[in-house]
Amino acid sequence: MPPRSQARRHTADVNRRLAVGIAACLLLLIQFLLGMAVNVGVALPAHHPGAQASNYFSGVSSGVSWVISSGPAWVAAHATFGLALVVAALAAIVLTWRAGSRAERTLSVLGLVFIIGAGFNGASFLNYGNAVNSFIMAALWALATTCYVTSAILAVRPA
């Protein structure tokens, strides 16, 4: 490949990785704001599908299905956006895997893990109402955001 073509490709890869990091941060910010709207403005019913389920995973499935289809609007939006964040995090892994550094790849995988962990803690809060799950969800959000901010910084640093 001619040097000029390689330089263009490198620039395009850097721009793509930077865009992924920034987009992930923006999506996480929207999710945080939706979560705050839920926290401040919504009282979840004590009895709904999945509430106090003896089998955690079937309870999560029932609770999340219920909240997306029939739950309060802000909670439905928060849960739906959370599922979309998982898809976005998977896309970030694919994009960084092709052209990113080892650190960027690791951060994209960790970002996904933290998003999934936040989602499971959100479902736990929905079904069992323990405030600690809300705290863990927020902490994992902060860790995921840190991963994507760091990944964006790494994308533009000189090689």
* Count of discrete domains: 1
Largest sheet: none
Number of strands: 0
Uncertain residue ranges? none
Distance N to C terminus: 19 Å
In N-to-C order, the SSE pattern is: HHHHH
Class by alpha and beta content? mainly alpha
Number of helices: 5
Question: How would the global form be characterised?
Answer: elongated
- Please state the average pLDDT score: 91
Q: Estimate the helix proportion, in percent.
A: over 70%
> What share of the residues does DSSP label as strand, in percent?
under 5%
Your description of this structure?
The chain is mainly alpha-helical and 159 residues long. It has one domain. Helix content is 84%, strand content 0%. It has five helices and no strands. The two termini are 19 Å apart. 32% of the residues are buried.
Layout: helices, strands, pairs:
Elements: H1 3-41, H2 56-70, H3 73-99, H4 102-128, H5 131-156
Helix pairs in contact: 1-3, 1-5, 2-3, 2-4, 3-4, 4-5
